[in-house]
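Handout, section B. The chain below has 154 residues.
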Amino acid sequence: MSINYTAIPTAEARHYQAGGADAYGLPPERAVADGEGNPCRHCLGMIPKGAGMLILAHRPFPAPQPYAETGPIFLCADQCAQGAGTATPAMLGSPEYILRGYSADHRIVYGTGAVVPTDRLADEAEARFRDPRVAYLHVRSARNNCYQCRIDRA
């Protein structure tokens, strides 16, 4: 089995980049990246020092429900190409992340969440996909629980 790291959809990124409301109904905040850990959830790269960036509340689920966590993310302020692929994205530079499985109805699949070393994400994702209840996975910050990207079956 192979996996695919999936960024937020381009239409969503363009909405935010055009000043559209975030998950809390607010326009994204504009800032300048300091080059110290501002991962773009669309291109899946690090926002370069001095580049414009957006800070906003994002809910990576199709609708509000008890398991639909909302939290802060960064995006490139200017349009960027959507990142995706089977290789670990450049933005995942921390030593470990939370990996958590979700069902087709967007509920946490209990027993699938763990803090995983970054170099083990692909192997651990493949192991979780052996559970037929798991439709997709989230990669989240091990320190702040911020949403990073999604992993799907390739």
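Note. The radius of gyration is 15 Å. Compare this with the example in section A.
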